[in-house]
User: What shape does this take?
Amino acid sequence: MRLRTYIFCLSAFVLLFSSCKHPEEPTPFEIAIPYGFPTRLNIPDDNPMTVEGVALGKRLFEDGHLSGYIGTAADSLMSCADCHKRAHNFDIGTDDPRFPNGKPHGRTGIHTRHTAMPLCNLVFNLEGYLWNGAVSYQQEVGSQNIEDIVKAAILATDEIGSTEARTLAALRNDSRYPEMFKKAFGSEEITMDRIQKAIAQYVRSLVSDNSKFDRYLRGIEQLTPQELHGYILFTTEEGADCFHCHGSGGSPLFTTNLFYNNGLDISFTDPADRSAVTGDIMDRGAYRAPSLRNISASAPYMHDGRFQTLDEVLIFYNEGLQYSPYVSPLMHKINEGGRHLTPNEIADLKAFLETLTDEEFLYGTR
Ligand code: HEC
Ligand code: HEC
Assistant: This one.
């Protein structure tokens, strides 16, 4: 075959092949799994992530019209981003005058049972969502996922407090959405199912992997001697002994995502702790161990937001542990009331925890 004919055939083939992709098909969104992270992801088959789906999800997540109002001056709007703020690791923070001490309440003023949670690296969590793990897609019966949390948040009176009909009407009132829904899902139709899917895609896209500590593990940044000492305390039983529940360099999520009673209380009255899910009395007062990534940004702390600062948390682990028969056996110093580290050791531990802050995630455009 002469060269010119060959080139012609080749380009005809390329043209034919490239035209196979429908021009309106969305572009797959790849989660680049960071160094050392688990490789199993929670992405359900019926909701593959796409660039257009994530973009739509981000817009919906931040849109007060989710609350079913169209936004006249008399309306009080509420979106996911009111309680899940990027600069606070998608947690509520303690600096919002609408939520004194970081205590969340819905549009109607009804308070949530627990404080809000950060939305960070949830795509790697295989153990169940919410403080008590009630939402789990691993369950054979009643399996639920982030999509279900989205719908519940839109409808719950202690959260956005809308109705399906109102939310759909308010979103259909915005002329920018039909095109975005078409790009993400192939047609302009706005449905609750698509809203849930798009927002869940956005939540799954929130991956934090660029803290100072990550850069240290990659060998491109040094920790100070103080931070290094804090890291050693964190990961040793004779030190602060945090790593059994909150992971370490070897498990970069900084949580096992499992459920423990960490010795906060003597008696337990919350009907929605882990025992409500498992039916096991020994799970009284147990909650999911939160990830410590971006921990300095995600106050208030604990399921009821009882601590406003990281210092208060560290004092608790050092000298405030409460004994009950339900305390996790991994709280090794429970009988002594805490770790009893020196003030210098506490300062070092805190310095290490602050290396888990990922500014790019909190303030970047990702
Ligand atoms: C009024 C404040 C508020 C609003 C608004 C809100 N949330 Fe939440 N969110 C919470 C609270 C509180 C929890 C923890 C609930 C619990 O476990 O008791 C939570 C938990 C979650 C979780 C579970 C995180 C984990 O690690 O398990 C996800 C996901 C979530 N919210 C997503 C959303 C989305 C998406 C929206 C918008 C559709 C939204 N939230 C709106 C307060 C809020
Ligand atoms: C036995 C397991 C366990 C050990 C050991 C442990 N924690 Fe925790 N940690 C938890 C659990 C469970 C929670 C959530 C408890 C709750 O909300 O009721 C928690 C909560 C926290 C929080 C608040 C997170 C948030 O977003 O609200 C911080 C900070 C924290 N732990 C740091 C530490 C440090 C530092 C150590 C070591 C001194 C440590 N933990 C040891 C299980 C543990």
Remarks:
- The chain has a mean pLDDT of 92.
- The chain has two domains: 51-204, 212-363.
